[in-house]
Amino acid sequence: MKQLCLGVALMLAACGAPPAAGEDKAQAILAQDAAEAQAGWQKGLSAPPVADTLEAEVGCTLQWEIWGMAISDGRLVDTVMAALPPEIQVKPAFDAHSRWSEKTLARQDASGGDPGPTLDAYQRLKPAVETAFDSAFTGKPGALEAYVARLAACRNP
User: Fold this and answer.
1) C-alpha–C-alpha distance, residues 118 and 150, integer Å
2) Chain segment 9-19, per-residue pLDDT in tens
3) Relative orientation angle of helices 116-136 and 90-110, to the nearest 10 degrees
4) Among 2, 41, 102, 153, which is least packed, fewest CB within 10 Å?
């Protein structure tokens, strides 16, 4: 329902229709999402450092990959992105993804270059990260905060 209200409000805004009660509700949802994302970012900044393991590195790579792809393919529209912290906008997202990817590849090279363990971890972790991302935008209380907290925890490799 949350996505539907937001989608309708965004379509009305794009078409130049006058503000309606649904748009007010969509603005309230955006404000709530922005507050939740800000809270998640702050929570993630105080999280312990990410473990120095292949699983943790692949997990962070996936978090940023899925987030960045959602931005670039338009799933996170400009109105939504404008309400979120600047640290999770498109450039920082792709920069963080690149840093984590490089760290993961360096670990792979240091252990003989076999991509098998990295690919196994990627395939094992991807469904859970995708599910966490999907639930972040379904209105489930705390889901967006939790996802953004993980992005913050994964801000630096």
Assistant:
1) 20
2) 333 333 344 44
3) 160
4) 102
Q: What is the DSSP string of 8-67?
A: HHHHHHHHTPPP-HHHHHHHHHHHHHHHHHHHHHHHHHTSPPPPSSHHHHHHHHHHHHHH
The set of residues, in sequence order, having a beta carbon less than 8 Å from that of 82 and lying 6+ positions away, is none
Distance CA 155, CA 40 (A): 13
Q: For residues 34 and 150, what is the distance between their CA atoms, to the nearest angstrom? A: 16
CA distance 84 to 136: 13
Placement of tokens 């490089």 in the chain: 102
Instruction: Give dist(CA 120, CA 122) in Å, integer.
Output: 5
